[in-house]
Amino acid sequence: MSQPILRDHSHQQNQSDASGAQQRYLQVADRRPADVEMARVLHTKPLSMALDPSGSAIAHWKHEPLHDVVEPMSHHVIMAYNGSMQRMERRTGRSVAIGTFRPGVLIIIPEGSSSRWDIPKPVDVVQLYLPHAVLKRVADEANTATPIDLVERTAHHDPITSRLILSATDVLESNEALDTLFRHQLIDLLATRLLAAHTGSPTTIQPTMGGLSPKVLLRATDRLRSDSDSDVSLAALASDAGLSRFHFCRAFKESTGLSPHAWLRQYRLEQAMSMLRDSDESVVSIAAALGYSSQTAFAAAFKKLTGETPSDWRRHKR
């Protein structure tokens, strides 16, 4: 009796698997970066946009009414609205969500999703573009065991996250060291907030217990006092302390009562006051020495913290 002929289909299966993997890869690769897709669909440029080496970004847009499809993007997009109340509609497949834009609400577009948007009036919005890798890093550092897929949100009430996103445009001071450190902290804080409130299984992130040792704290503050901008990146500070960014920020605040950004801003303010009081350096020279891009930027930051311009403060203290 003849033996049945056994055909080896494994190579065909391997080819099929490879083809499927390649197709999935191409689908991901074909997604536009969020800033590119937003510029396409909004037909304008952002008023401002701050980029981060992690691939994250924060952008402030003012745009006209929108009636178009937002194609899949390679970032999670989280938006906070900053304008008058208005109704809007979002269509995802057969699902229709009708919401109301107002301060304190949040919109989340998970990476890879696509929706049609109908917004009848002009919009003022601040957007966070968050790579999934950043969300995963923060989840790993926080030791969360829950899924990290973000939930689609349409005009969802979340004043805490909304206020955090909007704060990005208020706090940036045109000082590279301060602004970079602030963005690093804000992005990690927002990722933590998203994990806690906007995933399929929201999780409770346990607070860090205990601060930095005196030796590690001294090393961190020495870095923050450094004139080298590269030394004050959150990644460098955390690495030097032997901690993740997530745990370093919490331990630093436990030790000092301030976040690294707030500590550095206070230190730069004290430097500015000392130079204004004890030297004859011009305000322009002091602004440059402290890393501000212009005298105007320095004066605005100084007045925000003291209530006076640098020139007025100097006159009163002499």
Automatic annotation (TrEMBL):
Keywords assigned: DNA-binding, Transcription, Transcription regulation
Residue ranges annotated for the HTH araC/xylS-type domain, each copy included: 218-316
Matching SUPFAM superfamilies: Homeodomain-like
GO molecular function ontology, one term from the record: sequence-specific DNA binding
Superkingdom of the organism of origin: Bacteria
Composition bias, Basic and acidic residues: 1-11
Coiled-coil positions: none
Region described as Disordered: 1-26
Statement: the UniProt record of this protein carries the keyword NADP: no
Record InterPro entries: AraC_XylS_family_regulators, Homeodomain-like_sf, HTH_AraC, HTH_AraC-typ_CS, Tscrpt_reg_AraC-type_HTH
Biased composition (Polar residues): 12-25
Protein known as: Transcriptional regulator
